[in-house]
Amino acid sequence: MRDERTDAGQVLLMHDSVASKSQSKTRMSGSFRTSSDRTKYWILMGVLLAGSLLATFGLLAYDNPMPFGTRRFWIIAQRRADAVTAMGIVALCQAVSTIAFQTVANNKIITPGIMGFQSLYAAIHTSTIFFFGATGLLNARTFEMFLFQVLVMVGFSFLLYGWLLRGKNANMHSMLLVGIILGGGLGSLSTFMQRMLTPSEFDILTARLFGSVNNAEAEYYPVAVPLAVGSALILFFLSKKLNVISLGRETAENLGVTFSRVALTVLVLVAVLSAVSTALVGPMIFLGFLVAMLTYQSAPTYDHKYLFPLASLLAYLVLTLSYFLMNHIFSAQGVVSIIIEFVGAVVFLTIILRKGAL
Amino acid sequence: MITLKDVNKNYSSEVSIGPVDLEIPRGGITALVGPNGAGKSTLLTMMGRLLGIDQGAIEIAGMDITTTKSKDLAKIVSILKQENHFMTKLTVRQLVGFGRFPHSKGRLTAEDEEIISRYIDFLHLAELESRYLDELSGGQRQRAYVAMVLAQETEYVLLDEPLNNLDISHSVHMMQHLKDAAEQFNRTIIVVLHDINYAARYARYMCAMKNGKVIHMGRTEELMNNQILTDIFETPIEVISTPQGLLACYH
Predict the structure, then answer these.
(1) Which of A180, A282, B51, B170 lies deepest, with the highest CB count within 10 Å?
(2) ∠ at Cα A79 (A219, A125), nearest 5°?
(3) What per-residue confidence (pLDDT) applies to A43?
(4) A102 touches chain B (CB under 8 A)
(5) Are strands B16-24 and B63-64 parallel, antiparallel or unpaired?
(6) Is A46 contained in some domain?
């Protein structure tokens, strides 16, 4: 770095020239560094949108035995649209909740899943089949069961958040640790019950425990869609506060944003989003993580107002594209979440190894 | 004026801060000095309402910091801690822009932009203003954060060891900037300093702490005294008079 003392005159001169240069083009502090960054963002959004539309169309129309536009075509497309809706809900939930959660936790390598939602999901389904048998599990695919799962998961996370509020020495990290431990406990409880199942029951259960949009039923949507969209919108409108929060707790407090209040609001919404997604399709461990990481890498901004839409579109594209490829190109239905997790892990390792940082 | 009345913070029966009764007058730089673990940073953090107090009351410009809303206090007092978490993809100018948050709630007006430019120029960051924070050196980043709290335009500015990680040249510049800010913009700046010679040179008042209590508070010249400094730091310190002012020798 330049020694500013010895060539103070030179520095002053340089400052003058910089000042006059920057006065000629107005100095603004928008969400993007330069206007070309802004253009880059919108081009990226355009490409993702086009890709998403194409993948959606592909899912609805590809291999549709009826000629395009006929009534029968639309009947088939309608049936497929249910699965596409599930993808949309899951994409929105996973993308928005992961980014908001990472901002509040001030950590870019964790996901809301760390708080034990998957373990809870596994425990609910395992105990259903354990106590009521295979028919019990199949009969439990009802609207009430969906609502029950969402409520239990949100309630579970409130239990954790209570910890955050109550304890004098409690902080975000100890709350997460408690979440991991509770999740681990529930996981071993599930494993214990699974060992006592018959092989056929176990087989049915395993299929359920992998995240898949085929787990979703259209009758869940009247509750799932408003919950997901409503929570995501509230988070979107909290963008400005989230931006401040991402500067860290103390800086945020200095700027007059009460960290604990905003963090609690965000965590409640994250819990709702994660619960809806998990109860709808099952665990999707890597999707949110993968999408958040790709968003941070590609978005030339810190502003959550722009991060949320980009991440949501990205998640939707990843989901629809992988379902399209798996269903229609490789004819391997049902393994999509495994593929996403595999690809997610590979991308994660590549980025870590190449950049040495997130 | 910042007034502390019977302020206590208890960590355990052995470790506690207070009772502290203190009045910090308006204007100029006030330096908080003292040995490690004296409670300087803790006291500063409590004044900046980032840490709750167990007993007593702190008033800043007549407002009680525990009852006044945080967003109202953010227009009167700003605090900068040592360790700052920063995001990637955030430029210097955007960071300084956050300083306007208490006033504009994130919607920057033309006036805000002008204020932001003023403090960027004031700390000589104009050339760096569109750099991302992770492309800066530690010293430059420190300056950017100071620009942010100055852009907050609060009457009182609290800084926790702003010279940490800065070399001699940058330390001197930082202190000059702070002194200029105090004079030009009529701010009251309170800093935690480890090097008493910086305090002697730039601070109007000094506040010496030891074992969680304020031992001396007064004008810098009064505290720059062999006996007082030796007692505070438990190290032989000799104050000599030089053409540039008082200087403490302790090596």
Answers:
(1) A282
(2) 45
(3) 94
(4) no
(5) unpaired
(6) no
Question: Do A255 and B90 make contact, defined as CB atoms within 8 angstroms?
Answer: no
Please state the domain count of chain A: 2
> For A1, which of B50, B106, B137 is closest by C-beta distance?
B137
B220 token code pair: 């810098």
Domain membership of residue A57 (yes or no) is no
Q: Are residues A128 and A244 in the same domain?
A: yes
Nearest one of A243, A347, A208 to A287, comparing CA atoms: A347
Asked if residue A90 is part of any domain, the answer here is no
CA distance A283 to chain B (A): 29
Whether residue A322 sits in one domain with residue A219: no
Domain span holding position A125: 105-281
Among A248, A258, A300, the residue with its CB nearest the CB of B85 is A248
Rank A75-79, A281-285, B84-88, B221-225 by mean pLDDT and report only the highest: B221-225
Q: Whose CA is closest to A179, among A193, A159, A165?
A: A159
The shortest C-alpha distance from B105 to chain A (Å) reads 8
Cβ distance B116 to A257 less than 8 Å, yes or no, reads no
pLDDT over threshold 70, residue B242: yes
How many angstroms separate the CA atoms of B156 and B163, rounded?
Answer: 19
SS percent in chain B: helix, strand, coil, step 5: 35, 30, 35
User: What is the residue whose two structure tokens read 């105090």?
Assistant: B182
- Please, are residues B149 and B84 in contact by the beta-carbon 8 Å criterion? no
The chain A residue lying nearest B51, using CA atoms, is A250
| Residues B1, B22 contacting (CB under 8 angstroms) | no
Nearest 10 degrees: CA dihedral of B164, B167, B169, B173?
A: -10
pLDDT of residue A12: 40
Cβ–Cβ of B74/A258 closer than 8 Å? Answer: no
Stretch among A42-46, B31-35, B242-246 having the lowest mean pLDDT: B242-246
> How large a percentage of chain B has pLDDT more than 90?
31
Identify the segments of chain A with pLDDT beneath 50: 1-24
- Smallest CA-to-CA distance from B196 within B148, B151, B228 is with B228
Residues in chain B: 251
Q: Which residue has the higher pLDDT, B179 or A341?
A: B179
CA distances in angstroms from B241 to A76, B120, B197, B226, B231, listed in the order given: 93, 36, 12, 12, 20
Q: Which domains does chain B have, with CATH numbers?
A: 2-76+154-249 (3.40.50.300), 84-152 (no CATH)
Structure confidence at residue A11 (pLDDT): 41
- Domain CATH number, residue A141: 1.10.3470.10
Structural domain includes residue A317: yes
Instruction: Give the ipTM.
Output: 0.88
pLDDT digits (tens, 9 = 90+) for B145-173: 999 999 999 999 999 988 887 889 888 98
Interface of A with B in 282-301 (CB under 8 A): 296, 299-301
Question: Quick one: A134 and A192 in the same domain?
Answer: yes
- Closest residue in A to B71 (Cα) is A256
Q: Which of A245, A262, A281 is the last residue of a domain?
A: A281
